[in-house]
Amino acid sequence: MAERFDITPADYLAAFSTPAGRRVLQHLLYEGHLYEEVVTEEETIERNFVTRILRNLGAFSSKESRRMITAALLDAGAVGNTNTPKEKE
Q1: 33 and 46 in contact (C-beta within 8 Å)?
Q2: In the chain, N or C terminus with fewer CB closer than 10 Å?
Q3: pLDDT at residue number 84
Q4: Residue 85 domain-assigned (yes or no)
Q5: Sorting pLDDT into bands at 50, 70 and 90, what band is 89?
Q6: Domain range for residue 52?
Q7: 58: left (phi over 0), alpha (psi -120 to 50) or beta
Q8: Nearest CA to 73 among 56, 59, 52?
Q9: pLDDT for residue 82 is more than 60
Q10: Nearest CA among 1, 53, 66 for reference residue 25
Q11: How many C-beta atoms surround the C-beta of residue 87 within 10 A?
Q12: What pLDDT shows up at residue 71?
């Protein structure tokens, strides 16, 4: 992660582990074309950005992050759009 910032995967995990944060993550994954083939350069850039967020979350190393991200992926993928049901906070 960027050394200019004192940000860790735990910071990302805290930001996206609330009900609202989880909805935002689902939206970012959907809008970042994670569920479809990318065709244009713009879509590739958007997917790369989402992939960076996942990496910063520790998606490829932390068990806790993998569980949260898998749940977000399944929820957003099952719905197929950004109108996911709101969780009670």
Answers
A1: yes
A2: C
A3: 43
A4: no
A5: very low
A6: 15-79
A7: left
A8: 59
A9: no
A10: 53
A11: 11
A12: 73
Determine contact, residues 51/2, Cβ cutoff 8 Å.
no
Amino acid type, 9: P
Q: Which residue has the tokens 């992926």?
A: 73
Domain count, the chain: 1
What percent of the chain stands above pLDDT 70? Answer: 72
What H or E segment, with its residue span, contains residue 49? helix 41-57
Which residue, chain included where needed, has tokens 């949260």?
Answer: 68
Verdict on whether the full-model pTM lies above 0.90: no
Name residue 73's amino acid: L
Residue 69 lies inside a defined structural domain of this protein = yes
* Cα–Cα separations (whole angstroms), residue 88 to 19, 22, 23, 63, 83: 7, 12, 12, 25, 15
Is 7 inside any structural domain?
Answer: no
What would the two tokens of residue 76 be? 């957003």
